[in-house]
Amino acid sequence: MKKLILTLFFIPAAWHAQQTVNQDTEIVNYISQVHADSLKSHIHKLVSFGTRHTMSSTTDPERGIGAARNWVLKKFSDYAKNANGRMEAFIQKHVIQPDGKRIDRPTDLGNVIAIIHGTNAQDKRMFMMSGHLDSRVSNVMNFNDNAPGANDDGSGIAGLIESARILSRSKFPGTIVLVAFSGEEQGLLGSKMLAEKAKNEGWQIEALLNNDMIGNHLTSETNLTNTHQLRVFSEGLPYYQLDKNARSIRAMGLENDGDARQLARYIKETGERYIDNFQVKMIYRNDRFLRGGDHTPFVEAGFPAVRLTEFNENYDHQHQDIRKEKGVQYGDLPEFMDFEYFKKNVGVNIAVLANLAKAPAKPEEVRIEVDQLTNFTTLTWEKPKFRENITGYYVLMRDTDVSTWQKKFFTTKNRIKLPYSKDNYFFAIQAVSNSGNESLAVTPKVKNEK
Ligand SMILES: [Zn+2]
């Protein structure tokens, strides 16, 4: 007899009375190790470099981006000692020339990278978290004045350091990569440099969580406070190879099920599973108006990449000279940050990275049968190549007008026939480990589709 275990989760209360929250105790333990005090001390250290402008000194031992990136490298290298040779840390460097835009002198650009290698060298899956180390004031070319960049994006960098500290001590099947980009404010230069390297070298990046400003809770102008929501921005229609895929996206109505959106959905479900009284808010666009982010060069290179950002932004404390005007303090200073809120946002990152890196790889050859008129839905798939601790698969289902998965069916088989019409729902398949860690969800293709 076919056995199905049905788990309901995150369904509006009006529909169902209960939801099952299955937490992996290891991940709960990681999150409990995120400390507001250590995040705070990292922010103060980052601010102490005066400016971290991309064109500031790379040779001064105390002031400028060079001293800052050496400090980040030192932190990563220290944590690597916990990892028994599984973790490496280095700076990806390149001297860039004036570009007639936001670089007006030869500049030593450097991304600080930590890689916590997976336990199986054959398994090339990479799960990335990033932030940007560089900072700025009102004039984007001003590399002299103090640019504390406490929240933008000291928060992203402090989050990376805290994640490195916690995750370096554990072994995962998948590889975790932590990146402190430079050159973000000068035109996403560091992320372009790494995205190009990743594409040329065939890195198998399955997720990039780019954190840019995750430690402020108060809006400027409207004075709204929000300490319980984190935004995740993701593209709908894929930028990469849209021409090639537009026909099937349109035919199957998959404009809301691209890789970046599936990643955003996964972040929402996983983040809310582990962080109490917290909501991950999916924003259905790649980024905010008038602003860019380091996930975008990865999106454009075809990798699933999203931006994680605080719900509320405060323009008095972004890209501002430090000054007082009419009693208002401007500047990106630590005193305007909320470290308890910040801690939750770091927790979301750790939950997602650990859940992905512990999970089996994604199921392969996921297909939906569409060659017959029937009120059943039949899905088939093949087991993933890398499947340490795999226990089975979740078949995810939701109404076409609902943004998150509503039902999941567990099976150990490679085929499922459900008494729900394929016309009325979206489906996807995840592989799941015996401690409940799910792979990213794979949207089925129709038979014979490549
Ligand atoms: Zn930023």
UniProtKB/TrEMBL annotation:
<dbReference type="InterPro" id="IPR013783">
    <property type="entry name" value="Ig-like_fold"/>
</dbReference>
<dbReference type="InterPro" id="IPR045175">
    <property type="entry name" value="M28_fam"/>
</dbReference>
<keyword id="KW-0482">Metalloprotease</keyword>
<dbReference type="GO" id="GO:0008235">
    <property type="term" value="F:metalloexopeptidase activity"/>
</dbReference>
<keyword id="KW-0378">Hydrolase</keyword>
<dbReference type="InterPro" id="IPR003961">
    <property type="entry name" value="FN3_dom"/>
</dbReference>
<feature type="domain" description="Peptidase M28">
    <location>
        <begin position="111"/>
        <end position="322"/>
    </location>
</feature>
<dbReference type="GO" id="GO:0005576">
    <property type="term" value="C:extracellular region"/>
</dbReference>
<keyword id="KW-0645">Protease</keyword>
<keyword id="KW-0732">Signal</keyword>
<dbReference type="InterPro" id="IPR036116">
    <property type="entry name" value="FN3_sf"/>
</dbReference>
<protein>
    <submittedName>
        <fullName>Peptidase M28</fullName>
    </submittedName>
</protein>
<feature type="signal peptide">
    <location>
        <begin position="1"/>
        <end position="17"/>
    </location>
</feature>
<keyword id="KW-0964">Secreted</keyword>
<dbReference type="Pfam" id="PF04389">
    <property type="entry name" value="Peptidase_M28"/>
</dbReference>
<dbReference type="InterPro" id="IPR007484">
    <property type="entry name" value="Peptidase_M28"/>
</dbReference>
<dbReference type="GO" id="GO:0006508">
    <property type="term" value="P:proteolysis"/>
</dbReference>
